[in-house]
From TrEMBL, chain A:
<dbReference type="Pfam" id="PF12704">
    <property type="entry name" value="MacB_PCD"/>
</dbReference>
<feature type="transmembrane region" description="Helical">
    <location>
        <begin position="338"/>
        <end position="359"/>
    </location>
</feature>
<dbReference type="InterPro" id="IPR050250">
    <property type="entry name" value="Macrolide_Exporter_MacB"/>
</dbReference>
<keyword id="KW-1133">Transmembrane helix</keyword>
<keyword id="KW-1003">Cell membrane</keyword>
<dbReference type="InterPro" id="IPR003838">
    <property type="entry name" value="ABC3_permease_C"/>
</dbReference>
<comment type="similarity">
    <text>Belongs to the ABC-4 integral membrane protein family.</text>
</comment>
<feature type="domain" description="MacB-like periplasmic core">
    <location>
        <begin position="54"/>
        <end position="248"/>
    </location>
</feature>
<protein>
    <submittedName>
        <fullName>ABC transporter permease</fullName>
    </submittedName>
</protein>
Automatic annotation (TrEMBL), chain B:
<dbReference type="Pfam" id="PF02687">
    <property type="entry name" value="FtsX"/>
</dbReference>
<keyword id="KW-0812">Transmembrane</keyword>
<feature type="domain" description="ABC3 transporter permease C-terminal">
    <location>
        <begin position="311"/>
        <end position="424"/>
    </location>
</feature>
<feature type="transmembrane region" description="Helical">
    <location>
        <begin position="398"/>
        <end position="418"/>
    </location>
</feature>
<feature type="domain" description="MacB-like periplasmic core">
    <location>
        <begin position="20"/>
        <end position="267"/>
    </location>
</feature>
<feature type="transmembrane region" description="Helical">
    <location>
        <begin position="349"/>
        <end position="378"/>
    </location>
</feature>
<feature type="transmembrane region" description="Helical">
    <location>
        <begin position="308"/>
        <end position="328"/>
    </location>
</feature>
<keyword id="KW-1133">Transmembrane helix</keyword>
<dbReference type="Pfam" id="PF12704">
    <property type="entry name" value="MacB_PCD"/>
</dbReference>
C-alpha cells in the first residue's frame, strides 16, 4: 500500500495528528517506566531468605517484670527444653534477629586489626546451638559450629574489647565480597572485640533481616547465646501443623512463666507476606495506573479518529466512487494509525529514557533495560489498532454516493 | 454573556453526550489520581508544630572515635548520654530536653492483663517545649527529673485503655513491675510526623507513656531506637560514659535568629570536649530546626513521591486527551461557529464561549474527580503503611481539587478555542 497519500493527508491535519502522537508518546514513556518499576518490585519480593520459611515459627515473649533478678540464662534453657518436647517441633533455637523481622543490627567487619575503616558492614545473627538446622540453612563450605564454641552474650558483653569469639559462619555473598574467588573458610575477620574471628563455614544464602540496613547482603552467624528478655525463639516444625505448634508453644511458655506476654508469635511465611505488603500494594497501583492510561489513550484515539472519519467522509466517498474497496479504506485508517503510533512510540522511547534519567537521579533507580522499550511499543501498536478499528469500520461503510451528495 | 455561553455549552453537551462524558471522565480520572497522591503528600510533608517549628532545634555532635572517620560526613543522628546530660545541665536554650524511645510493659492496677507498649524517656521541658496539651494534671518538674521520681504522663489513649478515661492523676500505673504515679494525662495529640525521634516510625501514633529519663535509667527500662557504639561499653551501652550515641536532644531558642549563637556554643562545647580528650574528631556540629530536619531526613516516603510523579504524568495524558476531544468537537461545530460569526459574534466572543464550555467540563470533572479522590484515599487507607490512616481530605485539598480541575480544563480548552476562533464564516456558510 502506498503511504504517500496518508502522509499528505496528515500534513493537512497537523494538530489532530500531533495530539495523537503526543498522547501515545506520553503513554509509552510512562508505561515503559511503570512496567520496569513493577518488575523491580516483583524482583525485590522474590528475594530468598535462605531459610525454610514455611517451616519456621517465631515467638517473642518478654517477661513483664524486667527488674526481677532471675537467672535469664537458666530461664531460656528451660524454655528451649520445654519447647523441644512439644509434638511436631523439630528444632528450636534462640536468635537475636530473623529475616522479615522488624529489627536489625549491623557490625563493621575488617580484615586486619589496625585497619581504620570497615571493609564491609554485615548483619550478625547471634544464635544458640541449633540455629543452623532451625533456619534450615545450606552449608556450602566448611563446617558447623562445635558445641564448645558457643559463648554467653553476658560474658561477651562484660569482656568488652577483649572478647574472643571462636568462630563465625558467613553467607556466600559476604564471602564473595571479602575474598573474591578464594575459599573464605580458614580466613579471619575482625568485628567483635579486637581478636581475629576465624571463618569456619559458608552458608549459601541468608538474607539480612530488612533490606534497608546497608548495601550488599552480607550476613554472618555468631555462636553467641543471647538470653535477654524477649529474645526470639525460633522453632522449625512440620508445615502441616505449624499453627497448632505455634499455639501450643505460646501456651507452654505462658505456663512456665505466667508473667510474660506474647509480643510476637508468627509464622515466618506470614511475616514475609507482611514484609512485602507495601511493595505488593505499589505494584498493584502501578498496574492500575497502566491500565487506566491505556484506556484513556484508547478513548482519545477513538474520539479523534471518529471525528476525523466524519470530517473526511466526503473524501472517503470519492475514493469509494473511484473504485476503492471497503477493505482498502479500512486498511488506510489502520496504516494511518500505525504510522502515528510509530512516531509516538519513537518519541515515547526518548521520553521514557529521559523519565528514567529523572527517576534514576531522584530515587536511586537503575537504568531502564532496553528490553522494556519493545514491550511498550508492542502494547501501544496493538492499542492503536484496537482503538482505531471501530472508527475505521465506520469509514469503510461510507457509501460512494456521499461523494455526490452535497454538490 | 457568561450565562448565555453556559447555556450554549449545556446545549452542546446535550448534542454530543458520549464525547462530553468521555472528556469529563478523562479530566476526572486525572484529577482523582493526582488529588489522591497530592493529599497523601500534603499530609506527610506538613509542619508538625507550625507555631514554633523555626525555634525548635535538633542537636547533633560528632563524638565518635577517629575509626572510620571521613571528613565532612554527617555526625551521628543521636548524641551520647554524657553530652546530653552536659548540655541539659548547662541549659543554654529557653527550654531543652533529652530523650530516648522505650518499650515497656504497662499493667493496670486491677487484675486486667498487662500489655507492652511504646514509651518515651525524657526530661521535664519536653511537654511545654513541644506544646503537649495536658487534659489533666501537669507535666513532671525538673525536681522530679533530679530525684528520679517514679512519675508518668500518659497519652489520652492509654488513659482510656488503662483507667477508662477521666482524670487519672494520682493513680498508680505499673510499668515493668514498678509503681509509677500518674501526674498528667495528655489530651488528643498527634503531631504528624512524630518528629522528635526520626529513627522510629515517623507516622506511628504518639507514645503511650512518658517517664523521666533519669527514672527510666534507674529502673533499667528497655530502650528502643537506633544506637551506635564505637568502643568498649563495658557491658552497659546505656551507662553514662558508654561510647554510644542513642539520645535525642532538642532545644527551644527564644527566636530563630538565636541559632547562630547556640551553634557557636555547641562548637565551643565540642572544642572543650576535644581538649579534654573525649572527642577525637574535628568539631562537627549540626543544629537544624524542624523543617530543615524533616527535609534532611527525607520525611516523605519515596514511594509517595514516586506516586505523585506518576499521578501528575497521568493527569498530563488525560489533559492531552481532553485537548484532542475538545478539538474534535469544536471543529465539528465549524458551521455553527460560521453562523454565529456571520450574525456578528466577534472572535473574542467565540473564544470566550469555548473556554466557558471547557471550564464547565472542568467543574463536572472536578466533582467526579473529587469522588474518585475520596475513593482513592479510601484505598490508600486500606494500605498497610503506617501513614495510611492519615490520608484524609481537608478543606484546602478540597478547594485545590476544584481549582486544579478548572485550571486544567481551561488549559486544555485554549487550543480548541483558539482554533474555533479562526473559523472563517464565509467558507462555512458556503458549504451549508
Amino acid at each position: 500500500m502506498d503511504i504517500r497519500p496518508i502522509f499528505s493527508t496528515l500534513r493537512r491535519h497537523k494538530t489532530a495528528a500531533a495530539l495523537i502522537v503526543i498522547e501515545i508518546a506520553l503513554a509509552c514513556a510512562i508505561i515503559c517506566n511503570a512496567i520496569y518499576l513493577i518488575d523491580r518490585r516483583l524482583d525485590h519480593m522474590s528475594r530468598p531468605s535462605g531459610t525454610v520459611e514455611a517451616e519456621i515459627l517465631r515467638i517473642q515473649m518478654p517477661s513483664i517484670d524486667e527488674t526481677a533478678s532471675v537467672d535469664r540464662r537458666a530461664a531460656v534453657e528451660r524454655d528451649l527444653a520445654a519447647l523441644r518436647t512439644l509434638p511436631g517441633v523439630r528444632h528450636v533455637a534462640t536468635v537475636t534477629q530473623i529475616p522479615y523481622g522488624n529489627s536489625s543490627s549491623t557490625s563493621g567487619v575488617r580484615l586486619s586489626p589496625d585497619q581504620p575503616n570497615n571493609t564491609i558492614v554485615a548483619s550478625g545473627y547471634l544464635g544458640s546451638e541449633d540455629l543452623l538446622d532451625t533456619f534450615g540453612l545450606k552449608l556450602v563450605s566448611g563446617r558447623r559450629f562445635n558445641p564448645d564454641e558457643f559463648l554467653d552474650m553476658a560474658d561477651v558483653e562484660s569482656a568488652g574489647d577483649s572478647a574472643r569469639v571462636p568462630a563465625v559462619i558467613i553467607n556466600s555473598a559476604m564471602a564473595e565480597r571479602l575474598f573474591p574467588g578464594k575459599d573464605a573458610v580458614g580466613q579471619h575477620i575482625y568485628s567483635w572485640g579486637s581478636a581475629p574471628i576465624p571463618i569456619v563455614g559458608v552458608v549459601e544464602t541468608l538474607a539480612m533481616p530488612t533490606d534497608n540496613t546497608g548495601p550488599g547482603n552480607a550476613t554472618m552467624l555468631l555462636p553467641i547465646r543471647d538470653a535477654s528478655n524477649g529474645i526470639n525463639y525460633v522453632i522449625r516444625t512440620d508445615p502441616a501443623q505449624r499453627r497448632q505448634v505455634l499455639d501450643a508453644a505460646v501456651a507452654t511458655l505462658k505456663q512456665i512463666d505466667p508473667d510474660r506476654i506474647a509480643v510476637n508469635a508468627d509464622l515466618m511465611s506470614d511475616l514475609r507476606e507482611k514484609y512485602y505488603r507495601e511493595d505488593r500494594a505499589m505494584a498493584m497501583l502501578l498496574v492500575v495506573v497502566c491500565i487506566a492510561l491505556l484506556v484513556v489513550t484508547a478513548l482519545g484515539i477513538v474520539g479523534l479518529a471518529s471525528f476525523w472519519v466524519q470530517q473526511r467522509s466526503k473524501q472517503i466517498g470519492i475514493r469509494r466512487a473511484l473504485g476503492a474497496t471497503r477493505s482498502q479504506i479500512l486498511r488506510y485508517f489502520q496504516v494511518e494509525n500505525f504510522l502515528l503510533a510509530t512516531i509516538g512510540i519513537v518519541l515515547g522511547m526518548l521520553l521514557a529514557y529521559g523519565l528514567n534519567q529523572l527517576l534514576m537521579s531522584r530515587y536511586e533507580l537503575g537504568r531502564l533495560p532496553l528490553v522494556y522499550l519493545p514491550i511498550g511499543a508492542v502494547v501501544l501498536w496493538l492499542l492503536g489498532q484496537v482503538a482505531v478499528y471501530w472508527p475505521a469500520r465506520r469509514a469503510a461503510s461510507v457509501p460512494p454516493a456521499v461523494a455526490t451528495r452535497s454538490i | 454573556m457568561f450565562g448565555y455561553y453556559l447555556q450554549l455549552a449545556l446545549r452542546s453537551f446535550r448534542n454530543s453526550k458520549v464525547l462530553t462524558a468521555l472528556m469529563v471522565l478523562a479530566i476526572a480520572l486525572g484529577i482523582g489520581a493526582s488529588m489522591t497522591t497530592l493529599t497523601v503528600f500534603h499530609v506527610l510533608s506538613g509542619d508538625p508544630i507550625p507555631d514554633k517549628s523555626d525555634r525548635l532545634f535538633y542537636v547533633q555532635l560528632d563524638a565518635a572515635s577517629m575509626h572510620g572517620y571521613t571528613s565532612g560526613e554527617e555526625p551521628d543522628r543521636n548524641i551520647t548520654r554524657f553530652d546530653a546530660e552536659n548540655l541539659l545541665r548547662e541549659a543554654r536554650g529557653a527550654r531543652q530536653a533529652m530523650m530516648s524511645g522505650g518499650f515497656v510493659a504497662v499493667a493496670p492496677d486491677d487484675n486486667r492483663p498487662a500489655f507492652f507498649t511504646d514509651a518515651r524517656y525524657t526530661s521535664s521541658d519536653f511537654f511545654p517545649m513541644f506544646d503537649a496539651p495536658l487534659a489533666h494534671g501537669r507535666a513532671w518538674t525538673a525536681e522530679d527529673d533530679a530525684s528520679r521520681a517514679r512519675v508518668a504522663v500518659i497519652s489520652a489513649e492509654t488513659n482510656q485503655k488503662v483507667f477508662g478515661g477521666g482524670d487519672s492523676t494520682g493513680k498508680t500505673l505499673r510499668v515493668n513491675g514498678a509503681d509509677f504515679r500518674v501526674v498528667g494525662v495528655l489530651g488528643p495529640w498527634m503531631p504528624t510526623p512524630r518528629f522528635w525521634d526520626l529513627s522510629l516510625d515517623r507516622f506511628n501514633s504518639l507514645e503511650s507513656v512518658f517517664v523521666p529519663f533519669s527514672t527510666a535509667i534507674e529502673q533499667k527500662l528497655s530502650r528502643m531506637g537506633s544506637m551506635n557504639c564505637w568502643g568498649d561499653s563495658g557491658g552497659d551501652p546505656n551507662a553514662l560514659s558508654a561510647p554510644c550515641t542513642w539520645v535525642q536532644y532538642w532545644v527551644e531558642l527564644p527566636a530563630s535568629t538565636d541559632a547562630a549563637a547556640y551553634r557557636d556554643y555547641l562548637t565551643s562545647y565540642s572544642d572543650q570536649q576535644r581538649t579534654a580528650g573525649r572527642f577525637e574528631r574535628p568539631t562537627n556540629v549540626r543544629l537544624r530546626d524542624v523543617p530543615a530536619l524533616l527535609d534532611h531526613q527525607k520525611i516523605v516516603p519515596s514511594d509517595v513521591r514516586l506516586q505523585l510523579w506518576l499521578a501528575i504524568g497521568f493527569l498530563v495524558v488525560c489533559l492531552v486527551n481532553t485537548v484532542g476531544l475538545l478539538l474534535a468537537k469544536s471543529l465539528r461545530r465549524a458551521s455553527e461557529i460560521g453562523v454565529r460569526r456571520a450574525l456578528g459574534a466577534s472572535r473574542r466572543a467565540i473564544f470566550a464561549q469555548f473556554l466557558v464550555e471547557a471550564g464547565a467540563i472542568g467543574v463536572a470533572g472536578g466533582v467526579v474527580g473529587l469522588g474518585l479522590a475520596l475513593l482513592g484515599l479510601w484505598a490508600v487507607r486500606q494500605n498497610p503503611s503506617s501513614y495510611a490512616a492519615l490520608a484524609q481530605l481537608d478543606t484546602t485539598m478540597l478547594l485545590t481539587t476544584f481549582a486544579l480541575s478548572i485550571v486544567a480544563s481551561l488549559l486544555a480548552g485554549l487550543l480548541p478555542a483558539w482554533r474555533a476562533m479562526q473559523v472563517t464564516p464565509a467558507i462555512q456558510l458556503k458549504s451549508q
